[in-house]
Amino acid sequence: MSTPTFPDWSPQVDENARILIVGASGGIGRALVSMLRKGPACTIGAHRNSTPEPVATEDGPQTILDLQQGLHSDDDCRALVEFFSDAAGGIDGLVVLSGFIGRGEHWRDLSGEQWEQSVQANLNIPFFLARAAMERMESGTILLTGTESALHGGSPTSLPYGVSKRGTECLVQGLAREGAARGVTVNGVRMGYIKSGAHERWLGKSPEDMKKRAEMVLLKRGGEPEEAAA
Ligand SMILES: NC(=O)c1ccc[n+]([C@@H]2O[C@H](COP(=O)([O-])OP(=O)(O)OC[C@H]3O[C@@H](n4cnc5c(N)ncnc54)[C@H](OP(=O)(O)O)[C@@H]3O)[C@@H](O)[C@H]2O)c1
Question: Is pTM, for the whole model, over 0.90?
Answer without folding.
Answer: yes
